[in-house]
Structures are given as structure tokens and as C-alpha cells.
Design brief:
Number of strands: 6
CATH architecture: Roll
Radius of gyration: 15 Å
CATH class: Alpha Beta
Order of helices and strands: HHEEHEEEE
Number of helices: 3
Length: 140
């Protein structure tokens, strides 16, 4: 199946969610060609030594969002992996606050793809983090 079909099956419960989603307290919320959203809520387990949401939580959530946006363009018989990503954290995220991570595909070619993503408050709409990625598309 294609990457889009795989994500649609995951969203519909026909395939299991990735294990990282449980660790991140995140759920795939929507899937469309070139676009995905996740809903996530940071908990105490996601804090750094000073009690703030760890930067790795933002990075992992963004990687999931823009990576899955790329995945929607991957045809049957191919797979992708992240080559690099960049994260900008724009403000501290309160524990227990639900966010929406939206990933959008910018380009998908024969061997590489690029995408960007944002993390915004589900209720306040404020931007908490953003990022970009480059992925490689490979034969299975």
C-alpha cells in the first residue's frame, strides 16, 4: 500500500498507531494528500530537569507531523526516512495543554521530499514551535 493508504488505515484503526505516539501522548487526527495533523498533550513525563516541556518533545512531534506529510506522497514499494530537520521553539508550552501539530508537504521528487510543520495551541491558536525537514525516498 502507498504511504497515504497506510496512514488512512492507521487513522481508521485498521492498523496500529506507531508506538512513539503512546510515549508522546499524541494521536493522528487527520490525513489528506500532502497534509496531516496530530493532537498531543505534554505531560510531566515530557519535562526537562527544570520542569519545562523538553525540546525533544517538540522535535519528535514536529518530525511526526512533517514526516507523515511526506509519507502521504510515498508510492507503494517505497519508504522514506528523515535526512535532517530543524526546529524553532517560539514559546514555552504549559503542561497539560493540548496542541495541534500540522505537517504540510512542500515538495516530493524521485528521491527527496521537503515539508514543514507547526505546533499550535488547540484552544489559543498560538504558535509554540515550527520546523522543516528534508527526507529521502528509497526503494523497499
Amino acid at each position: 500500500m502507498s504511504g497515504l493508504e497506510f496512514l488512512q488505515a492507521t487513522l481508521e484503526g485498521r492498523l496500529p498507531h506507531a508506538a512513539i505516539a503512546t510515549l508522546m501522548n499524541a494521536q493522528l487526527a487527520s490525513v489528506a494528500p500532502g497534509r496531516v495533523t496530530f493532537r498531543a498533550t505534554p505531560a510531566f513525563e515530557h519535562t526537562n530537569p527544570v520542569g519545562a516541556v523538553h525540546g525533544g518533545w517538540y522535535g519528535t512531534l514536529l518530525d511526526s507531523a512533517f514526516g507523515c506529510a511526506v509519507m502521504t506522497s510515498v508510492p507503494k514499494g517505497k519508504w522514506y526516512t528523515t535526512l535532517e530537520y530543524k526546529v524553532n521553539i517560539t514559546r514555552a508550552l504549559p503542561l497539560g495543554m493540548e496542541v495541534i501539530a500540522e505537517g504540510i508537504l512542500d515538495h516530493s521528487g524521485r528521491s527527496t521530499a521537503t515539508a514543514h510543520a507547526t505546533v499550535k495551541g488547540a484552544e489559543d491558536g498560538k504558535l509554540y514551535a515550527s520546523g522543516t525537514t528534508t527526507c529521502i525516498i528509497l526503494d523497499r
